[in-house]
Amino acid sequence: MIFQNWNNICLCGEEETLFPAGGKRVDEPFAPLVFLVRRDGLTSRGLYAVTSLAEVNEPEGVACLTPAAAPETGPLADFVARHGAAVLNTAFSNAFAVLQRFVQPKTSGFRVTLVGLGDVGGTVLTGLKLLGQEIDSIAIYDPRQDMCRRYEMELGQVLEQDRPMPQITICREEDLFRCDLLVFTASRGVPGLDSGVQDVRMAQLEANRTMLAAYAKRARQEHFTGLFCQVSDPVDHLARGVFLDSNRDEHGVYDFAGLLPEQVQGFGLGVMAARAAYYARQEHVEFSQGRAYGPHGQGLVVANAPAVGYNDAVSRHLTELARTANLQVRALGFKPYIAPGLSSATISLLQLLRGEMHYGAVPLGGVYFGCRSRMTRLGLQLFREPITPELLARLEETYRELKEADRP
Ligand SMILES: NC(=O)c1ccc[n+]([C@@H]2O[C@H](COP(=O)([O-])OP(=O)(O)OC[C@H]3O[C@@H](n4cnc5c(N)ncnc54)[C@H](O)[C@@H]3O)[C@@H](O)[C@H]2O)c1
């Protein structure tokens, strides 16, 4: 194994060709330690955190949500167990630039861009204004100029509190990616209440994917090293779409010169977890260990508990209630956007910025899979815990379906 000191990061790899220019050989590993690998960009992760050497080369799939295989032994394994490490896929041309940005994370003064000021966008913005103490500024963008002016005025007129609140400014198109976090809530058209459309999320796929392609290309051109947070529907498929479209050259060929998979994250599972908790309370079901996984919509998996106490019938019942909760609000004659804006986006985004475990769709073996994870200076860290085989089989099924649907 070769170790190099590169900008005070310890890079470690089996071949010289994996290393960037400018590193100096060292004899011993030091923290932060980064394992360099080269893997297929279409089906592999880009930058992720590990707590054991056994995780470095494990196959990608839902088993990564359970505790890793027995730890290896030896000095390197001991080092990783003590300090943790990152794995970086050098197949992505921006891998080292993104690594540097992650290793020196900001803890305050974030700059956010919010694209799309419809019902969801307006709710997310209101939530971030009130709760986002660690955000300095939110630059807002929507083709509807009147909406930009409206929110700039309305949220500029919120009474000061004894803790900081972000400033709201109107974003120029050319400044969209001058931020740490771009939150995307725009849609080309949510089916109306009387449209008769059953799956209002999937119905938006084609139009929203086309709209997003322009933003994905722009992220690529500007060598964006921040995070692209996808909120509009269908969240999980569009997150994958943003990643893919940013990694194609002008002839449509994948060259992996765009976003790393972990720079894109889908935000739709937060509201599913909150809806499941709501129905569990109504039906007096214990849900303190409750979990939600998979896509925001068809394919969702809710569990009353991940391992001990898992009840398949109760879990499937809660899954169905959470999956169709939006239709209950629609039946009252209203478009549901308040709980989604606050749970899937505002609260989950703030947890992301704070480095806390949160719900989001994250890259795993070539799909964006909803689960709990957190952002660390060593990359994205999955929440791993024992999962009962019955539940794991459900997760594998929904994972397979996503993989089939998102084949490039
Ligand atoms: N993630 C979740 O939990 C969740 C929950 C509910 C809804 N949603 C989704 O959020 C999205 C937004 O819903 P909504 O109710 O706010 O829709 P909306 O129709 O009220 O607003 C959409 C906004 O997008 C803007 N827009 C259109 N084209 C644009 C472009 N090219 N660039 C920038 N902005 C553009 C429009 O001007 C409009 O302001 C939908 O896809 C909806 O299904 C997500």
Descriptive account of the structure:
With 408 residues, this protein is an alpha/beta fold. It has three domains: 2-103, no CATH class; 110-266, NAD(P)-binding Rossmann-like Domain (Rossmann fold, 3-Layer(aba) Sandwich); 269-405, L-2-Hydroxyisocaproate Dehydrogenase, Chain A, domain 2 (Alpha-Beta Complex), CATH 3.90.110. Helices cover 33% and strands 20% of the residues. The strands form four sheets. The protein has a six-stranded mixed sheet with strand order 3-1-2-4-6-5, with helices on one face. The structure holds nicotinamide-adenine-dinucleotide. Nicotinamide-adenine-dinucleotide binds next to helix 3 and helix 10.
Summarize the structure.
With 408 residues, this protein is α/β, with parallel strands linked by helices. Helices cover 33% and strands 20% of the residues.
